[in-house]
Design a protein that fits this description.
Number of domains: 1
CATH architecture: Alpha-Beta Complex
Strand order of the largest sheet: 2-1-3-11-5-12-9
Structural class: alpha+beta
Largest sheet: 7 strands, mixed
CATH class: Alpha Beta
Helix content: 25-40%
Distance between the termini: 35 Å
Order of helices and strands: EHEHEEHEEEEEEEHEEHH
Shape: globular
């Protein structure tokens, strides 16, 4: 395990969005003595399978992010490093999530929402502030998948799930099952802009419901 390496993992099906994502990654300040590596994944049918490919890499710190997530906080790497090193029990860190996950697995319908991100609802650039975080991070039950950073490797449940839904919530549960903390980072200003322009064009409700049913059967007990 290379404890001085960050790996950025992204499933890519739109090179234009990903090229913009890379511009922000390459603009980040890299802590002294650390290195950054990119891990784009093309041509996969399931985000679970794609993200599992990254586990073969020796980087201790892995950042799983959407191709349309742009990190605007130039000190992002040092910030997550500080948070992880402050608490070895913290396994997974996100930027939005909930303290109490409802049985349906939809985090934003839970209670104790925290975090923030710059979003684009209805085509309008908007600050989405779900709730303030106190301390370096706030322990939660689940985080949103637009950006997920880890300091430990746990397999993504490709044995249970296919496609692109509930990967973030199921992975949050996998970390807590192993007695790791899941947290949302304290952001004085939003660290990311989530473009999210094509979501409504690609969202398939029947696929979502099918994966949700598996999630509920496996985790909501």
């Amino acid at each position: 395990m290379n404890e001085r390496k960050f790996l950025f993992v992204t499933c890519v099906n739109n090179d234009i969005l990903y090229s913009s994502c890379l511009k922000y990654i390459r603009n980040l300040i890299v802590p002294s003595g650390y290195q950054v590596e990119l891990f784009p994944i093309h041509g996969i049918q399931s985000i679970f399978e794609g993200y599992n490919l990254a586990l073969k890499n020796d980087a201790k710190y892995k950042v799983y992010l959407h191709q349309d997530t742009y990190i605007v906080n130039q000190n992002f790497l040092q910030d997550i490093l500080t948070i992880f090193q402050s608490n070895p029990s913290l396994g997974l860190l996100g930027l939005a999530g909930c303290k109490n996950l409802p049985s349906n697995g939809i985090w934003w319908q839970g209670t104790g929402l925290v975090g923030k991100v710059i979003g684009l609802p209805n085509g309008i650039r908007t600050l989405q502030n779900f709730g303030e975080v106190h301390g370096l991070f706030e322990p939660v039950q689940a985080v949103d998948g637009f950006l997920m950073a880890t300091q430990y490797d746990i397999p993504w449940r490709s044995d249970l799930f296919k496609g692109y839904h509930f990967y973030d919530i199921s992975q949050s549960r996998e970390f807590t099952r192993r007695r790791y903390l899941v947290g949302v980072a304290n952001q004085r200003k939003p660290w990311c802009f989530h473009y999210h322009l094509h979501h409504n064009q690609t969202f398939n409700l029947s696929d979502y419901r099918a994966v949700q049913k598996i999630f509920i059967q496996h985790y909501s007990s």
